[in-house]
Design goal:
144 residues; alpha/beta; 5-stranded parallel β-sheet
Length: 144
């Protein structure tokens, strides 16, 4: 059985947090697909949000983690793609609910708005929470 692959991507504001989270993802036993960026040079978040969305849609990864300064722009970029449910989370409760109720397949974090320890807790919660299904399933189907 192959390992689950988690795609990670960030813009210039989020690359440091992405790199820290990458180590945690690997420590949890997942394969990592790092889609960049890997430095402070200015880049455009839509390019990275779209690249991660396409990696999931194409089956190169099963889920993903996105990071930009606030998390807002890169989540919008990812959510433009059918089948992507990117959830901007600021705490463990939102990370849990995004999986349980919304079957989110992408966790989005704001590097300038979320502390490192909170981001790590969100990551762990997101990756360890299953979709509850049931009454939530019909709502997810309406998303397309």
């Amino acid at each position: 059985m192959s390992k689950t692959t988690i795609a990670l991507a960030a813009d210039h504001a989020g690359y440091e947090l992405k790199d820290l989270l990458k180590k945690d993802v690997e420590a949890l036993g997942f394969e990592v697909l790092d889609l960049g960026t890997n430095g402070p040079d200015r880049v455009d978040y839509p390019d990275f949000g779209s690249a991660l969305a396409k990696a999931i849609i194409n089956g190169d990864a099963q889920t993903g983690i996105l990071v930009c300064g606030s998390g807002i722009g890169i989540s919008i970029a990812a959510n433009r793609h059918a089948g992507i449910r990117a959830a901007l989370c600021h705490d463990e409760t939102l990370a849990r609910l995004s999986r349980e109720h919304n079957d989110a397949n992408v966790l989005v974090l704001g590097a300038r708005t979320t502390g490192i320890e909170v981001a790590k807790a969100c990551l762990k919660t997101f990756l360890n929470t299953e979709f509850a299904g049931g009454r939530h399933q019909g709502r997810i189907e309406k998303l397309g």
